[in-house]
Amino acid sequence: xxxxxxxxxxxxxxxxxxxxxxxxxxxxxxxxxxxxxxxxxxxxxxxxxxxxxxxxxxxxxxxxxxxxxxxxxxxxxxxxxxxxxxxxxxxxxxxxxxxxxxxxxxxxxxxxxxxxxxxxxxxxxxxxxxxxxxxxxxxxxxxxxxxxxxxxxxxxxxxxxxxxxxxxxxxxxxxxxxxxxxxxxxxxxxxxxxxxxxxxxxxxxxxxxxxxxxxxxxxxxxxxxxxxxxxxxxxxxxxxxxxxxxxxxxxxxxxxxxxxxxxxxxxxxxxxxxxxxxxxxxxxxxxxxxxxxxxxxxxxx
Length: 301
Known about the structure:
By secondary structure, the protein is α/β, with parallel strands linked by helices. The protein is 47% helix and 12% strand. Strand 3, helix 5 (119-131) and strand 4 (136-140) form a beta-alpha-beta unit.
C-alpha cells in the first residue's frame, strides 16, 4: 500500500455538545408492537456471539455455535445470529460446528486485546486464522503508536492486515475507551477507512467505556461521509456494554437516522455483545405471551 501524506490523516474537530445532544435526542424515539418485534429480530441477526477467555474450550465453542444458530430453539421465527467470534486456535472447532449454517466464523487477531506484539507475528496470526476457515478477522490497532502520533505506522499495519485477510472481511477495533477524545476517535476512523477496513469496531470489550451512543454516532457519520466521498460502503460494529433490547433498538435508530436503511443489515451493522441476546429473547417472548420469563429460562452460554 502506498504511503500517505500526513495531511491525509487530518480531520476536523468534533463538536462534542452537538454530537452528544443528537445521540441523546435519537435515544428518545419509541418503537412499539410489530416494529419493536421486527427491530429485536433484526438485532439478533446483527449479533456476533463471542467467547474470548483463557479458559475457552472446544465444548464451550460448540455450545456457543448452537446458540448462534438457534437462539430460541422453541421458536422458528427467531433468526440466527451473524457470527461467532473466537481465538484463532479455536477457529476449526467453530467452522465444523457451524458448517451448513449462515453464521460466519470470526477470529480476533493481531495480539488481541492489547496488540503488543511484532507485525510479523500479527500477520502470521491472521494468515493462520483465515487458512483455518475464518471469514472475518477482528484486528486491534496499535493504540501506543496512535497515541504517540505515529499515524502512518497504524495505517501501514491496517493495510498489511487487510492484505493478509484475503477474501475475509476485516473489522478494525479502535478501542475507543483508550483513545479518550472524540477527535482521536474520528482520526482513528479516518486511518482505518484509508487502510481498507470493511468494518469499524468500537471496542475489544475488555476496556471501559466500550460502546456508547455518541461514539457509535460519530463512527456512523464517518462511514456515511466515506460513502459519499468514495462510493464505498463500510460497516460499524458496536461492541461492549450493550445489554438490553431497549438499548439495541436505540442503536438501530442511530443507524437508520444517520446512514439510512441500507445500513440496517448484518452486512453493515453488528452488535458485539453476547449478554444482549438473553434480554432480546426475553423481550420477544414478552411480546408473544404478554409476560416476562425469568432470565434463567434462557441459556446464558
